[in-house]
Amino acid sequence: MSLRLFDSILDLPAADWDALHGAENPFVCHAFLSGLEQHGCLKERWGWKPRHAAWYGGERLCAAAPAYLKGNSHGEFVFDHAWAHAYSRYGLDYYPKWLVAVPYSPVPGPRILARDESSRRTLVDAMRRHADDEALPSVHVNFLPESELPAFDEAWLARCDVQFHWRNDAGWSDFEQFLGAFSSKKRKNIRAEREQVRRSGITFRVVHGDEAGDEDLMAMHAFYCMTQSEKGNQPALTLDFLRHLARTMPRSLVLVLAQRGAETIAGALLLRGGETLYGRYWGASETVPGLHFETCYYQGIDYCLREGLRVFEPGAQGEHKIARGFLPVLTHSRHHLGQPAFADALRDWCEQERASVLRYRDQVLEHSPFREPPADPARS
């Protein structure tokens, strides 16, 4: 039994890697992660250096984690800048940290991929020991699912946050049925937003990777770059990466493209896996009232209802989502700090943060657009 580290996921056979997860989350598929490495999306000067962890029993891969040595905290969406500043004030190095995550993707899903729970716990413990032995300042596991939480003992710091997800637990078959669960005022608001876009003369195409022409991929990439530049971010995902997704994950890639006549004026990039649709990026060359909501949310809900998908995760943050039927869900992360004094101090901080997050979740649930509360208000 041994821990092995890899500086590229290409050094791990795709079949062995993908055998460790249920293939329901596209972001941990070998094709997605290898595409990031192959097509210029991860650069050490941007703070990303692959250092994937794998646990072997003899020559059999028993567990693995997509992991990176990070030189900063960009592109992670579990915000620890205050921790880094605290280390700096005491003359300590916070970076490089060892991060288990999907780059640029605040998407809950498998993180410690394993054949069984024993292998998962073994890999978690081996990564912590390795970090301590090699004087790595910390290990972080972001956006892991509830099912993996038992693999982490109480020595790990626990953090949580809120995202807004759509769920079809009621069995709606179309958008009007979905709206029928809303209060009258909220229902009218949604209809008015959709009608506003329709009256503007905009139509929509929804295409999968194997249906998208190169002009579609080029348009989507241009929209993505526009949005990233507007936010002051470096566009990390390349056009060749989108082409790679269309080629290697053709039915997982979903593009929502807004048309004015023959011209594509906006687009949203989504992925699907299992019963879930994941919204990731959007952009537009025109400013049209309601276009963002229609492209990113309502078209995605329509797609889920047509395709029989039960969950739609449209991306991190955004309280405006709750009025459109997306309710708060807890996300989870786990953190090991090599400095015991900091770990002890931050444990109290994490407990206070969790209490604040739970209060926030309960507060925003009071603004649910649904006439009846969800069956499981915790959504944790």
Key traits:
four-stranded antiparallel sheet, eleven-stranded mixed sheet, Aminopeptidase, alpha+beta, 380 residues
Shape: globular
What separation lies between the terminal Cα atoms?
A: 35 Å
CATH superfamily of the largest domain: Gcn5-related N-acetyltransferase (GNAT)
Query: Architecture of the largest domain in CATH?
Result: 3-Layer(aba) Sandwich
- Determine and state the CATH class of the largest domain: Alpha Beta
- DSSP strand count: 15
Main β-sheet description = 11 strands, mixed
Task: Explain the overall architecture.
The structure is a single chain. By secondary structure, the chain is of the alpha+beta class. The protein has two domains: about 1-160 and about 330-365, Aminopeptidase (3-Layer(aba) Sandwich); about 170-310, Gcn5-related N-acetyltransferase (GNAT) (Aminopeptidase, 3-Layer(aba) Sandwich). It contains ten helices and 15 strands. Strands 2-5-6-8-15-9-14-13-12-11-10 form an eleven-stranded mixed sheet. Strand 12 and strand 13 form a beta hairpin. Helix 2 (about 30-40) runs antiparallel to helix 8. The longest helix is centred in the last third of the chain and has 26 residues, at about 340-365. The radius of gyration is 21 Å and the shape is globular.
Quickly describe the structure.
The chain has helices at residues 14-18, 30-38, 81-89, 117-133, 175-179, 184-199, 214-230, 239-248, 291-307, 340-365; strands spanning 2-6, 48-50, 52-57, 60-65, 67-70, 97-100, 113-114, 138-144, 157-167, 203-208, 253-260, 263-273, 276-284, 311-313, 327-337. It has 380 residues and is α+β, with helices and mostly antiparallel strands. The protein has an eleven-stranded mixed β-sheet with strand order 2-5-6-8-15-9-14-13-12-11-10.
